[in-house]
From TrEMBL:
Keyword NAD in annotation: no
Gene3D superfamilies found in the cross-reference section: Periplasmic binding protein-like II
Keywords recorded for this protein, A-Z: Lipoprotein, Membrane, Palmitate, Signal
Protein's name according to its UniProt entry: Lipoprotein
Pfam family, one: Lipoprotein_9
Transmembrane spans: none
Gene Ontology CC entries for this record: membrane
Family of this protein: Belongs to the nlpA lipoprotein family.
Listed InterPro entries: Lipoprotein_NlpA (IPR004872)
PANTHER family named in the record: D-METHIONINE-BINDING LIPOPROTEIN METQ, LIPOPROTEIN
Record's bilayer topology term: Lipid-anchor
Compartments, record wording: Membrane
């Protein structure tokens, strides 16, 4: 009888131990799962933004603000040309891009059948005429060699700038995108060479003058407001040349991306733009 009772109690204790172990194990699993969910919920939302050039203080400032206040992590994907960022956005390799004028984006959409769209405006970066030899457009000699961007929109914009500077005349019927063949008067017989935009500043040593975008000029070490011998005037007619934050059409209503635009279009960002660009980029969103 004693042996039977011992066996009974031993079995009861063993069963109880197994039950407690099972309950304890279940509790730990639930706790681990909750901890994992909490960690996941605290992970930042990652957004890739394509930009052109190495100098991106405004976006670095925006990235800091978004990480601190919204737990959004911005990865700047830097390119050196104007062709790849739009292809990367259209292909889904990046989420947004911010490097181009609205007219440039519209031209890309038309040429490729893409549907990139404007989420918001950022700055206008005036084109400038630069020279290592001359300090005034009036001094540019007959037969001077001139470099201009070769993409259709910046090409036309550069020709219009040469016209504004009094160096050539283009056919007015060509609107915002005249091409070299649309020059109707070239009194100085300028020798115009079309270059990739990224080469317009680097080629200055081989040219009399070159038309350079402000962003490229800053990357090359120039201060547009000081070093350009003629700077593109900014007026109410300049909107086609406003730079934009662009997304794919399917993401046009994304609350996440709208939040990023709101943080960019802030007074703090405007101050960073003014300081970092030395006045060569001008904020153009509403309220500026």
């Amino acid at each position: 009888m004693v042996m039977s009772l011992k066996k009974y109690l031993g079995g009861f204790v063993a069963a109880s131990a197994l039950l407690l172990a099972a309950c304890g194990g279940g509790g730990n699993a639930a706790s681990d799962e909750a901890t994992s969910d909490e960690a996941t919920s605290n992970d930042p939302t990652h957004v890739k933004v394509a930009v052109v050039g190495e100098i991106n203080e405004p976006w670095e400032y925006v990235a800091e603000q978004l990480k601190e206040n919204e737990n959004i992590e911005i990865e700047l994907v830097k390119y050196t040309d104007y062709a790849t960022p739009n292809k990367s956005l259209a292909d889904g390799d990046v989420d947004l891009n911010a490097f181009q004028t609205e007219i440039f984006m519209d031209s890309f959409n038309e040429d490729t059948g893409s549907d990139l769209t404007t989420l918001g405006y950022t700055v206008i970066a005036p084109l400038g005429i630069y020279s290592l030899t001359y300090t005034d457009v009036a001094d540019i000699p007959d037969g001077a060699t001139v470099g201009i961007p070769n993409d259709p929109t910046n090409n036309g914009r550069a020709l219009r700038l040469l016209q504004t500077a009094g160096l050539i005349t283009v056919d007015p019927d060509t609107g915002l995108t005249p091409q070299v063949d649309d020059i109707t008067d070239n009194p100085k017989n300028l020798q115009i060479t079309e270059l990739d935009s990224a080469q317009t500043a680097r080629a200055l040593q081989d040219l009399d003058i070159s038309i350079v975008n402000s962003g490229m000029a800053v990357d090359a070490g120039y201060i547009p407001t000081e070093d350009a011998i003629f700077l593109e005037p900014v007026s109410d007619d300049s909107q086609p040349y406003y730079n934009v934050i662009a997304s794919r059409g399917e993401d046009a209503d994304s609350e996440l991306y709208r939040t990023i635009v709101e943080y960019y279009q802030s007074e703090g960002t405007a101050q960073v733009i003014e300081e970092s660009s030395k006045g060569s980029s001008i904020p153009v969103w509403d309220g500026q």
